[in-house]
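Hi C.,

You asked whether I'd gotten around to modeling the 221-residue construct. I have! Everything is below, sequence then structure, no commentary in between.
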Amino acid sequence: MEETSKKKTKRRNAEETSKRIVILIVVVSQILMTEVWAKAQPILSYVPEVSSGETTEEIPKAVTQKLSEEVTNEIEPKAEIEEKDENISNFMTDENSNAPVIEKTATHTVHKVVNMDQITSCTAITVHTTAYCACEKCCGRKSDSSLIGVTASGTKATEGRTIAVDTRIIPLGSKVVIDGFEYIAEDTGSAIKGNKIDLYMNNHEIAKEWGVQEKTVYIIS
């Protein structure tokens, strides 16, 4: 009798264990299915709807094409940026440029960078540099608005290129290297006398911030 009771107890324990195993399997399966479904949704969203009369043979191709487009769109901008960075780096390296003058863009201003090692003849002078803009405070009132921003040589004043000079020291049209950048003597000014140079800038506040700076400049033509 006692042996029969032990067998029943053992059988009940086995059944309970089996139930627990089944429940555990179900729970684990549900968790796995949830994760799989979450990962599958982005891919399934690429699958086109199939209308009546159409087959699903093209679906794998459509999925592959869509995924390929997503990868291409992600890679191309990065590749373009890397290519631009590499081009700029090569462009600014002396050993990759045989020309004495190359261009560099910075803050919407195009400067010409000069490789002085390739300049065979120049005149070095020390000057006091200031800065100006085309506003009334810097250039006075213009009776004709069309003359605002027009230099003494008739060109349009351009930041990164135009400088005002004393033509007795630096003739108009001369190319002058300041801090490694090439400028052109295109303008004059009533206050620009002797060894003084006024650099044209687009913004009055930035021009004021320049103040007065002593520079050694090079007249290369």
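If it helps when you're writing up: Confidence is low (pLDDT under 50) at residues 87-108.

Thanks,
B.
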